[in-house]
Amino acid sequence: xxxxxxQTDGAPIAHAIRSDRLVLAFYYAWYQRQDWxxxxxxxxxxxxxxxxxDATIERQINWAARAGITGFINSWWGPGDxxxxxxxxxxxxxxxxxxxxxxxxxxxxxxxxxxxxLQGRSRMVNGLRYITSHxxxxxxxxxxxxxxxxxxxxxxxxxxxxxxxxxxxRQVDPHHQWLWSAEGVDMNLLTVFDGIHLxxxxxxxxxxxxxxxxxxxxxxxxxxYNAAHHSHKIWAAGVLPGYNDTRVPGRQGTYTVPRNxxxxxxxxWNAAIASSPDWITITTFNEWFExxxxxxxxxxxxxYLTITRQESKRWHG
Length: 317
Description:
single chain, alpha/beta, eight-stranded parallel beta barrel
């Protein structure tokens, strides 16, 4: 546990941070100024930005650190993509933050399995080898108990199979030197991956009024798997401020999880903490198209960063 003090330049301060209790927010570094429009977003940021700007990334890291977030899960669309270039900038600003304030902000990548540049076994392998060679040894790339961590979106979507992932892993990480967290609810994922997370944050628990039961159910399933296989698979509980993708052009099956002025988010945090997770993931820092952001907005101001700070402090104990 370590505490971080206020700096004279107004840099982030956090309460005591426990290095074994990660609070990771899904993060999107793809915005351009022309993207900001209520025609396809349910709310808008208080500061409209371009994700490639240094000032934007520095501001976002500062906001996140003040709120007790320990790192971002940066949506990654392949080598050389703008999400890749902006991740380099993110790591640089994390280094500057730690030098200035002592606050350790360690981020990782969200391997976007549906990205065109990551389709097919050879592109998957090449992408993962690129990540290893470019980021593994960066001190601000997320490590957990000495192992670098990587998140994977929807590994079983669009015809992908566990056999495919097992084959890929044999090529890129045969000795399991990485920790791979899979998005999804199928416990069979644990035969190839090292843990599961729910980008959905189990939102049906919020809708049905049994969020704590949903999270505890996943904790119990992971525990049962670990007991049966003498393993240490990781349960990452998701928290959600709300969701609204009804304005995304052309999207089918849209839905809304009402924010209820912060009550939804607090319910989500309560359930996550009660499930004794290994990690907590926030859906999301700034996914504006899907209306799941905690970044300051026109409608809510800084309310969701304030709640994040309160709840992360409670979890860090």
